[in-house]
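Morning. Coffee machine broken again, so started the prediction first thing and wrote up yesterday's gels while waiting. Chain of 109 residues, entered below exactly as on the submission form.
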Amino acid sequence: MDFAPLMSLVAYLVVVSAATERVTNLVKSIVSQRIVVDNKDIKVSLYQIVAAALGGAMAYIVPPTGILIVGDLPLVSQIIVIGFLVSGGSGMWHDMLETMSNVKSSTKP
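Came back before lunch.
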C-alpha cells in the first residue's frame, strides 16, 4: 500500500493548520480586546468560523498543487474543504501524521 499521497496531504494540512492557528491567535488577541462576548459557546463558534476562513485563505495563498483531496474537485472547492479541515488545529493533524508514520513503519515487510 502506497502511503505517500496520504502522507503528503496530512503534512500539507499540518503546515497550513499551524499557520492558520498562529494567525487565528493573533486575530483572537486583537478582537478580544475590542469585542466583548459573554456567551462562551458563541465565542468558541466565532473563533472556529474565523479559523475556517483563515484556513481557506492560507490554502488560497499556498494552494495544494499536486495533492488530490477528494476526486477531481475544483481548486475553490478544495480551498473550502481545507479551510474546514485545518480549523481543527495543527495538534490534531500532527498526531494524525505521527499515527500514519507508525502504521507505515509497522506494515513494512
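The CA atoms of residues 5 and 43 lie 36 Å apart. Going to sketch it on the whiteboard this afternoon.
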